[in-house]
Amino acid sequence: MALKDITVPTMGESVSEATVSKWFKNVGDAVKQDEAVAELETDKVTLEVNAPVAGVLKEIKAAQGATVEVGALLGKIEEGAVSTNAPSAPAKAPAPGVPAPQAVPQQSASVAAPSSSGPAARKIAEESGINLANIPATGKDGRATKGDVLGYIATPQAAGGKASAGPREERVKMTKLRQTIAKRLKDSQNSAAILTTFNEIDMTNVMALRSEYKDAFEKKYGIRLGFMSFFVKAAVNALKEIPEVNAHIEGDEIIYKHFYDIGVAVGGSQGLVVPVVRGADQLSIAEIEAEIARLAQKAKDGTLAMSDMTGGTFTVSNGGVYGSLMSTPIINPPQSAILGMHKTEERPIAVKGQVVIRPMMYVAVSYDHRIIDGRESVTFLVKIKEAVEDPRRLLLGV
Predict the structure, then answer these.
(1) pTM of the full structure
(2) DSSP single-letter state for residue 251
(3) Which residues are catalytically annotated?
(4) How far apart are CA 368 and CA 142, in angstroms?
(5) What b/e sequence results for 236-254 when a residue is b if at least 16 CB atoms lie within 10 Å of its CB, and e otherwise?
(6) Calpha distance 382→170 (Å, rounded)
(7) d(Cα 394, Cα 396) in Å, to the nearest integer?
(8) Residue 4 in contact with residue 73, Cβ under 8 Å?
(9) What does the alpha-carbon distance between residue 377 and residue 242 come to, in Å, rounded to a whole number?
């Protein structure tokens, strides 16, 4: 029977490699055509790799955790074959060229640690009256290291106290997405001259508007009316008036954007992601809410595609959903600015000479001072403040 290759599919613009995060099948398992057999994690999204034909998974060429490039061989399927495997949970595949480990009899807990443990480790253990067999060893070939012994001595059980409920430390490899988030945010700080300007918004009118129409809105459109759509609309209006904020530097040129694709930072299953609301200037409040809800659900499910997260011109981030009162958001490169929303909190403020209690939100715009001056950044944030405090401006575009 013919063997069919399982290869790494094209993963989108600017993405050339991925990590094999999971195998859904073991060697010898039956697979159906188009059934997901493996999962890949890129620096932006996770995606499933489907079987090209029905048959039996004959070989796994890329182990879980391996880094692979587009077109690389993941495994082979014997087309039309019938599996003799009993159903089993997916297991981590062995690395190419490494024989599968053989089962060995489980040793008794009373067996002493290998005598090959380092002399320093043995000396410290003897001086402390500790049996090396009781120490979890992390050294090569099961050897207890000096660090293992010192770490054990510091634990309560070494002194006869109550054992801890779990390990004191855990080492976990960063996901591709988390590595990319770390790199991009650090690159943003290193390459841009980032400054932040702050203001505060009286949310009274927009909250009253939402309260009055939220039931009718949800009944008509089938989605909840939130505040993010108002801020996206306000940002679009401000971007039109301050075009430098909707631009970025490329070499010795400034690229001005005449479209408004707004990234909305949301927490997904793999970490913080920024899906993009396309053509936000052409969408109504209801359409923006629907698109944000759709993208947020995809982020939660881990099904965002490359096309969902590329090409944004400006980003809005709402730390208020987590209780943040004030922060300095980091620019999402190559963009030149980002708007940070925060928690709405009742505070006393002065209105026409009287102290009143109003629901207030601090807002922040972090911007690249290489392209945006202080006047533009402050004016931009004031425009957003004015639009949200008087939502009628959003309807009139003023």
Answers:
(1) 0.63
(2) T
(3) 369, 373
(4) 52
(5) bbbbeebebbbbbeeeeee
(6) 46
(7) 5
(8) no
(9) 8
User: How does pLDDT run across 83-132, given as a tens digit for each residue?
Assistant: 777 655 554 544 444 444 444 444 433 334 444 566 667 767 777 777 77
The contacts of residue 341 (CB under 8 Å, 6+ apart) are 227, 228, 231, 316, 317, 318, 319, 320, 361, 363
Tokens representing 88 are 């089993």
Residues 6+ apart with CB under 8 A from 43: 15, 176, 177, 179, 180
| pLDDT tens per residue across span 168-206 | 777 877 777 677 777 777 877 787 889 999 999 999 999
Residue 155: CB atoms within 10 A of its CB come to: 13
Looking at domain 176-396, which of 3.40.50.920, 3.90.1010.10, 3.30.559.10, 1.10.1740.10 is its CATH number? 3.30.559.10
Q: Residue type at 230?
A: F
Q: What is the CATH number of domain 3-79?
A: 2.40.50.100
CA distance 98 to 165: 35
Backbone torsion region of residue 295, taken as left when φ is above 0, otherwise alpha when ψ lies between -120 and 50, otherwise beta? alpha
- pLDDT score for 170: 79
Strands 337-341 and 314-318: parallel
